[in-house]
Amino acid sequence: MTEFRAALRAGVALYDAGEFHAAHDPWESAWLPLESGTDDERLLHGLIQFTAALHHAHGRNWSGAVGLAGSALGYLADLPAEYRGVDVAAVRTSLGALERDPERVERAPPPVLTHEGEALAYADLDLEAASVAAEVLAEEYGFDEEVIADAVDYAGEEFGTGRSRFAAMLFDFLDGEPTRAFVFDRLEKHVERKRREEEDVAGLFEEREAER
């Protein structure tokens, strides 16, 4: 279940960075194939609606926030106080407060989400979870998703080799403004160079095969 854990932690880190809208994307990708009514499905469904409720509240859509908070509570109601490393009890408490008074988001900071007892910064993620978060943010902010996807592949190829060029740039991309666009430009140049190297190798291989 490493993919589930990576999606869960990516979403928590995005949420804790204030990316309420983007946070639901990794959870949704992991949630869609799950059997309805299972504990994993209800956890992710509840978290998705939790972030959606906060997103609506920050947009002053009070009725939408109240409805989603109540729905999220329903999905999380029967889960243990802690499940899959998530403090479900704290999420339920936050949802109850939001359902009663959605305008509270204008008077207090949003509740912190934790996983295994800790709020997550991007630096706390492993490469798999960081890659998920980077692809989500690329879509959220209109960066070329193919560049990020290739960078993720190249970072995976480098894993364990002692070279972490693409991984380092992915984490820099996650760090955000004011440098995200600059980091993306640099990352795109490295991706294009790597693509050309692969094309050159493929072309040389084809030439050798043709000579046989």
Automatic annotation (TrEMBL):
InterPro entries, per database record: DUF309, TTHA0068_sf
Alphabetical list of Pfam families matching this protein: DUF309
Highest taxon, organism lineage: Archaea
The name this protein goes by in its record: DUF309 domain-containing protein
Species per Swiss-Prot/TrEMBL record: Halorarum halophilum
